[in-house]
Amino acid sequence: MRALTRDRRAFTGAALIVATGVLLSAAGLVAGGSGAARAAGDAVVLDEGELDLTPRLVGGKLELQIDDRGSDSTVVREPSEVVLHAGPETKEDLIGPAYPILGDTLLSAYFFNGWENAGQIFAPEPGWNGTEAGADTEVRLAGFEGPGRFAMYTYTREMDNNDESPVQHLNSGDSAHSAFTLAEDAERAVPTWGFTEEGVYRLTLTVTSGGSTDTETLAVVVGDDIDPDDVLPGDGSTPTPTAPPTSTSPPPSTPTAPAAHVIDNGHIDLAARPVDGALQFQIKEGTANAHEWHEPDAVVLHVKPGARRKITEGYEFLGPVGDPVWWLPIQQLDGLVWPGWSTDQFKSSEIDGRVAFRLDAVQGPGALSIFTEGSVGSVIMHAHSGDGLPDTFDLSVPTHRHTVWTFAQEGVYRTTFAVSATLADGTKVSDTETIAWVVGDDVDPSTVTPGTGDEPTATPTTTPSQSASTSPTATASPSASASGSASAAPSATDPGSASSGTGGSASTGGSGTSTTGGLASTGAQVAVIGGIAVAALLVGGGAVFGVRRRRSAQ
């Protein structure tokens, strides 16, 4: 068996997909000031932050404990009082060497300390500390319950570059890897933990060192099908609290939920579509071969918690590094809605010039940004509500494109778009629609009125003022650069009045950056923040935002 040492520390992170927003309360605070919250069976749910599983001598006996460093001070916890949560943001595609470990038929799994999104997501970062046991420690997977397979292994970028094989430590489906040696000098070893299915896992771990042994069971909730606040810690044997008597009186009447169609996953297009000789702005749900059309005022788009990411260096124009953002990337991720733009319902012979999309208004708790990336370090901003609206961009006909969407805070947003064009016969056509979005999980999207809604007007939080000096330089889009010309931006009263020619219209994007109107093509040389090949992966919200590190039981 191979020893687990600090020299084989794995890159932390995971792909796709959720830690959640602020729910700290006085009832949720525990000793040590960590801010962790109590859940079912008096458990502490750890859904982000650094922690170590530490075999240590306590009164001359070995005990397996958890050193929780998710706050300013370290809190020592018993595994039997903790529930770890691997949210949907920890889901990522399997890299080749992990196939024989987790199963060669899998396409993706959930990871602590994963590969693709290292340092970009809000998730637990469990490591191992062997320095408190007084000698090397054997760690054994003595028992296992769960809906899928579990494996713990080390595979680093350096190992990948050298064509080395992963080092397996524990594997629920392979008795040959039921134990590993934790070296005495391993101050913080950080292997990857992989889980193949959503659900509740219980890992029974036995640690042995110097003739002393301790066995503990650690509960892990994977995905978002089950609320970790409702899961009993340890082996699950803690009695369930007695439920209060059920009332025999009829429940109070509640208003009927609006008949909105909620879309929270898969491909959609915000499309300019010819209808009855005019232009209508509609939402296409599905693919070219299987789709439905919806009126924007009948739809609620849900940006699920799996979209939550961190701002990285180089993208401070969206807010301070480390702050959260709800991020819909330019490539499709399973579990998230994937909004694109389309003019491909029109023929090129039907339109004189280009189709203009103008963002007139954003109502919501934070700033909305719509952009793509050009060369490394540059951003092509198409619309940014944090520095004033309207913002306009345009597309040639026929075109299908995708962009990055970022929302600075959780809550309900309403975006008003005016879409316009000039028909081949010179007739100017346009349509203005409002789309409702629910970001995060603080609001049930099925209860939100679509369209303009009925909430009082909320002023979005603006982008931090210091961002103007730190934002990447905007560059021309591929379509605009190729043409060598740019059309004037349409006016606020007539969004299609000047959208002719081949160049992209100009508007002002985030942080006062001059931006182009043309959008980058799907699959073109547009770097995806969150992609493997880009050093700065994902960006975050522009507003001051309290991050919930632990969820409170209600």
The proportion of residues in beta strands is 35-45%
Task: List the quaternary state of the chains.
Answer: single chain
Strand order of the largest sheet: 1-14-11-16-17-7-3-2
Number of H/I helices: 3
Approximately how much helix is present in the residues? under 10%
Largest sheet: 8 strands, mixed
Q: Could you name the ranges where pLDDT drops below 50 across 5 or more consecutive residues?
A: 6-35, 458-518, 520-554
Roughly how many Å apart are the termini? 45 Å
Taking all residues together, what is the mean pLDDT? 77
Tell how many strands the DSSP assignment holds: 35
Shape: elongated
Structural class: mainly beta
C-alpha Rg, in Å?
26 Å
How would you summarize this macromolecular structure in one to three sentences?
By secondary structure, this protein is mostly beta strands. It contains three helices and 35 strands. The strands form seven sheets. The chain has an eight-stranded mixed sheet with strand order 1-14-11-16-17-7-3-2, with no helix packed on it. Strands 18-22-33-32-26-29 form a six-stranded mixed sheet, with no helix packed on it. A five-stranded antiparallel sheet has the order 8-9-15-12-13, with no helix packed on it.
